[in-house]
Amino acid sequence: MGKIIITGTPGSGKSTILSKITVKVKVINMGGEMMKILAEKGITERDRVRHIPYSETVKTRAEVVKRINKIGEDSLIDTHASVKSSIRYIPGFSTADLDELEDIKGVIYIDAHANEIMVRRLTDTTRARENDLEDEINQQRRINTSISSYFSSYLDVPLYVIMNRQNQIEKAVADVERAVNDALGREKQWAK
Question: What is the pTM of this model?
Answer without folding.
Answer: 0.89
